[in-house]
């Protein structure tokens, strides 16, 4: 029988809520994911929460029941609570049916297999968790090998990033590295580094891509440092016909990724 | 000399802050935009705030000074205040240098000139202000004729939408209409209605587009109603190779819009 917690003052509730904070995620090695859709996606990808909170009334839902059984079978704990506490855990007014606490996983470059895909997404100093999640979602859609985060990026395990990924955090490999580690890793095998830039005349549609293609997107506000651009095998630009000089970072990444995908599929 | 307000209790501050709320925007016909970049974009597009708040120290900045002069010349008022009050107005911890109160404008279909562009963006029941702003930004980049919002969409004049648009709200025409108004308007002239759908075998890369192309994106969670899909001249899909069955709405719109742009440019 699942344990029942209905008191806001319960120390476990406080502890789980603190996972919304980066410092606590780092200290505990755990993170939060919310919602039946995302947790079901996680389960299908073989990732189960160590703690699963569900609101009493939702326990009648087939997918919630399956999740509870899967979590308990895997040695995790399912905890019954109420919608108010779920709201408190998720920080949203409309609470999700379920909130899960997951163990974070290894995000070093070593986890990546560069032969897994012809498309890789690379973002440097990505600051917006919504952008990060959206890029992961695009990564899933184009069957990218993974997302490589360079330098001081927002935490892929943040609640907002997980939410925006719609579960793709669980299906798309993520690695984090400094530029100084990434470049030797990249050059240790086949791979074309393609940078999105304004300072080039090469239109992204006419360019020659070679698999595996590593698509590098720069910081939302500043673009990428000159040093990174210089290290690229190819710089391409996306036409900007209006008043502004940049696209949203997740949009630019997706437009590029779909172009490369179309070329690779012939 | 600009008026100076440094008291949180000033009724004008309260009134301006209330523009973060949809109800107050509707009642007053005004909205908020923040940040020097966005307000400069607005000025270049010929839109000046009726009220401009700036923090004393930022008044030395050239662009701020130019804004103040432009606002006062146009009969608006520039008001000096402090960073704490700017934070309160914008609801952000890092206050922007400037916050402007703008008069909203006509967003009926009548403001649109369908001959203005070969690409139009249409979104129905768009719920996320970040997506709306991002779509406007893409609209600027592809030189779309405008964004047409169908049904119950998030308010394009919301602070979050304006922010995500990075100023494109001021450069890309926006119209709001019910489906029952939109369809006769569309059919009253040339225009191909292209719907993004999962229920088709037509890949977006192989499809035949005719200018002006109206790209219809459905609601983030549910896609578009069957009735809307049936009214489209063409349904196309973007390949989804991963576990998930959908892209972020702003990403899907951008991938489509850039495909149509590339075709139209030959």
> What is the CATH first-level class name of the largest domain in chain A?
Alpha Beta
N-to-C series of helices and strands of chain A:
EHHEHEHEHEEHEHEHEEHEH
Low-pLDDT stretches of chain A: none
Radius of gyration of chain A: 20 Å
Provide a descriptive summary of the structure in words.
- The structure is a homodimer of 266-residue chains.
- By secondary structure, chain A is an alpha/beta fold.
- Chain A folds into 2 domains: 3-103, 60s Ribosomal Protein L30, Chain: A; 109-265, 3-Layer(aba) Sandwich (Alpha/beta knot).
- Chain A is built from 10 helices and 11 strands.
- In chain A, strand 7 (147-150), helix 7 (159-165) and strand 8 form a beta-alpha-beta unit.
- In chain A, helix 3 packs across helix 4.
- Chain A is elongated and about 65 Å long.
- The A-B interface holds A 41, 44-45, 130, 134, 137-143, 164, 166-168, 171-172, 205, 238-244, 246-248, 250-251, 254-255, 258, 261-262, 265 and B 41, 44-45, 130, 134, 137-143, 164, 166-168, 171-172, 205, 238-244, 246-248, 250-251, 254-255, 258, 261-262, 265.
What is shown here, in short?
Two copies of one chain form a homodimer. By secondary structure, the first copy, chain A, is of the alpha/beta class. The first copy, chain A, is built from ten helices and eleven strands.
Helix/strand layout:
Two copies of one chain form a homodimer.
Chain A: E1 3-4, H1 11-17, H2 22-28, E2 30-34, H3 36-44, E3 51-55, H4 62-73, E4 77-81, H5 83-90, E5 98-103, E6 119-124, H6 129-141, E7 147-150, H7 159-165, E8 174-177, H8 179-187, E9 192-196, E10 213-217, H9 226-231, E11 234-236, H10 249-265
Parallel strand pairs in A: 1-4, 3-4, 6-7, 6-10, 7-8, 9-10, 9-11
Antiparallel strand pairs in A: 2-5, 3-5
Helix pairs in contact in A: 1-5, 3-4, 6-7, 6-10
């Amino acid at each position: 029988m699942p344990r029942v917690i209905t008191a806001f003052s319960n120390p476990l509730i406080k502890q789980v809520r603190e996972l919304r904070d980066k410092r606590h995620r780092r200290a505990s090695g755990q993170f939060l994911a919310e919602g039946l859709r995302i947790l079901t996606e996680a389960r299908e990808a073989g990732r189960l929460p160590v703690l699963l909170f569900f609101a009493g009334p939702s326990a009648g839902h087939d997918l919630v029941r399956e999740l509870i059984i899967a979590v308990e079978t895997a040695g995790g704990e399912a905890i019954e609570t109420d919608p108010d506490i779920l709201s408190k855990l998720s920080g949203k007014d409309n609470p999700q049916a379920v909130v899960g606490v997951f163990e974070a996983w290894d995000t070093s470059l070593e986890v990546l297999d560069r032969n897994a895909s012809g498309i890789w997404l690379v973002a440097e100093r990505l600051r917006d968790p919504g952008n990060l999640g959206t890029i992961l979602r695009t990564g899933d859609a184009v069957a990218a090998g993974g997302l490589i985060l360079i330098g001081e990026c927002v935490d892929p395990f943040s609640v907002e990033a997980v939410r925006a990924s719609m579960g793709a955090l669980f299906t798309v490999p993520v690695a984090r590295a400094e530029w100084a580690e990434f470049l030797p890793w990249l050059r240790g095998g086949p791979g074309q580094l393609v940078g999105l830039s304004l300072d080039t005349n090469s239109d992204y549609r006419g360019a020659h891509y070679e698999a595996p293609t590593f698509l590098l997107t720069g910081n939302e506000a500043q673009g990428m440092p000159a040093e990174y651009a210089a290290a690229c095998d190819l710089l391409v630009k996306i036409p900007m016909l209006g008043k502004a000089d940049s696209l949203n970072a997740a949009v630019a990444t997706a437009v590029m990724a779909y172009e490369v995908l179309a070329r690779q599929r012939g």
